[in-house]
Design brief:
Layout lengths: L1 H31 L15 H14 L5 E8 L4 E8 L4 E3 L2 E10 L8 E12 L5 E12 L13 E9 L2
Antiparallel strand pairs: 1-2, 1-7, 3-4, 4-5, 5-6
């Protein structure tokens, strides 16, 4: 008995899918067919579309925050630290200097994502005992997938965590 009910359900689902496909195709043909009357005027384009784009840009720029939160790992000591970095300010962690330039957070209705634009310098002493800074990283780090764009350094790991408004 259960097999017969299952076959009936499958048959009804198949018929429903076919009817839905046919009705969608008929509707699409109605939309695509235009009247052959040469006196019809083309629809005018309104400016509401451009206004919506400008609003989207404003909403997107408001997703930038003024603090970036990163996790720093010193591989030699196995110590991790959560660093709260103010955008535009330098922060020294061991022998590296971290400068966050931008921090973007995705809207709440989308997949959670934080993107941090970081510039990282390493300080070393040269043969003349002068401190030389060498840029070792400049790019975006993503909190959802840190392996895409990460700092490759023998001593330090930096991972993007979050963006924060203060």
């Amino acid at each position: 008995m259960a097999k017969i009910i299952m076959k009936k359900n499958s048959f009804f689902a198949f018929c429903f899918t076919i009817l839905l496909a046919i009705s969608t195709r008929v509707d699409a043909q109605k939309i695509n067919s235009s009247p052959s009357n040469p006196n019809t005027k083309p629809e005018s384009i309104t400016q509401t579309n451009t206004l919506n784009l400008e609003e989207d840009d404003n909403n997107d720029s408001s997703r930038f925050s003024n603090y970036a939160i990163v996790q720093a790992l010193n591989k030699t000591t196995a110590k991790t630290s959560i660093l709260e970095l103010k955008v535009g300010e330098k922060f020294i962690f061991g022998s590296i200097k971290i400068i966050p330039h931008r921090c973007w957070q995705s809207p709440l209705d989308q997949k959670p994502e934080n993107k941090i634009l970081l510039e990282i310098f390493e300080s070393k002493t040269d043969s003349d005992d002068k401190i030389v800074e060498k840029r070792i990283f400049y790019g975006w780090m993503f909190s959802s997938s840190p392996s895409i764009s990460g700092l490759e350094h023998p001593i330090y790991d930096i991972i993007a965590i979050n963006c924060k408004f203060k």
